[in-house]
Amino acid sequence: MKIEVLGSGCAKCNKVKEIVEKVVNEAGIDAEIVKVEDIDKILDYGVMVTPGLVIDGDVKIAGKIPSEDKVKEWLTQ
Known about the structure:
Elements: E1 2-6, H1 11-27, E2 32-36, H2 39-44, E3 52-55, E4 58-62, H3 68-76
Parallel strand pairs: 1-2
Antiparallel strand pairs: 1-3, 3-4
Helix pairs in contact: 1-3
């Protein structure tokens, strides 16, 4: 599983990465977590507002911080 956190490195973007890492570790999920800061790559996903979260190429959320429960739901579907 590939998880991409989209954002420039702002506090909200870092919080999303922190939440994802926590959920992945707690659930024992085998995943590659990548921080995407290249604006062109972010725009390629159609994300105009960061932070964004992409799981296996599918944009799950943009412009806000997801809850741990929501991230866990996405990762265990």
